[in-house]
Amino acid sequence: MSEKISNPLTKYYNGKFEKQPQEAPAIQGKMQPVPDCGEESYTGSGKLTGRKALVTGGDSGIGRAAAIAYAKEGADVAINYLPFEEEDAQEVKAAIEAAGQKAVLIPGDLRDEDFTRKLVHDAAAALGGLDILVLNAGMQQAVQDIKDLTTEQIKDTFTINIISMYWTVQEALDYLPAGGSILTTTSIQSAEPSAQLLDYAATKGAITSFSKGLAAQLSEKGIRVNTVAPGPIWTPLQICGGQPQSAIPEFGQNELLKRAGQPVELAPVYVFLASDEASYVTGQVYSITGGSFFA
Ligand code: NAD
Ligand code: MG
């Protein structure tokens, strides 16, 4: 029997959100409504059987949705996150194990080069290899006036969002086989930068260019590289300074589909791009925005 068809306007929460400030990094389990990362709503079908994946920022939001979907598709999954986010990470571990797969938790800060390089080797050792690398961790802090943007924030945003990608990829090339897949998370901000996200949007532009160039460099090894460009997705990043609190109630409501996206709505694309079904797909930007066009 075919699944009931659903209306994208009403498939997920489409009301206004309550303002709900948290310090960064925010804890997903404390959000209202709790983002849907596919714990119940994603169904796998063996598309990644036997694969081994490392997902940065895998405790919450988009990375959690990818990690859970990968496990439901038959992959063992290691996630990286900040130590403060342990309670979110434990929920992901439980979801991966409930899908019958191995979960590896590796907390630590991607601003630390030594940690970041070691993360890749620790993940590969614990998983017994590495086929899929999802570079998804990111920080976003809105600042209205460039004069108030501190050097510390600019450096942190660049180090976490893009510089750490060079370190992880350099180490991951020890393991990724032909058929391996690297995914990065860019943003619609790469194409349409907001006035209050001058540091963040610039890193997203860099991620898009990095991903396309890396695809060209790694093609001869049979390693594909693609990037996903989300629009407004209901995740912890947004409530702890990614948006001004005044923007939270109507977050996502100006998109064509008139609501914020849920992380699980990105999971099928992260699965596809990591899988053999995407064997002729590399160097691409996949936008999932609720309607904004990435160009
Ligand atoms: P999220 O807060 O759930 O995930 C971001 C994760 O980044 C955190 O969970 C944290 O573990 C990790 N992180 C942050 N600083 C870190 C550090 N110093 N060391 C290690 N890990 C660190 O939010 P999300 O929205 O799911 O974000 C995932 C990715 O999606 C980010 O790259 C973000 O820029 C991107 N994105 C999000 C949206 C959106 O609307 N939510 C839109 C476009 C792009
Ligand atoms: Mg988190």
TrEMBL record:
Gene3D superfamilies: NAD(P)-binding Rossmann-like Domain (3.40.50.720)
SUPFAM superfamilies referenced in this protein's UniProt entry, alphabetically: NAD(P)-binding Rossmann-fold domains
Domain of life: Bacteria
Gene Ontology MF terms: oxidoreductase activity, acting on CH-OH group of donors
Keywords, ordered alphabetically: Oxidoreductase
InterPro entries per the UniProt record, alphabetical: NAD(P)-bd_dom_sf, Sc_DH/Rdtase_CS, SDR_fam
Listed Pfam families: adh_short_C2
Family, as annotated: Belongs to the short-chain dehydrogenases/reductases (SDR) family.
Protein name stated in the entry: Dehydrogenase
Gene source species: Candidatus Enterococcus testudinis
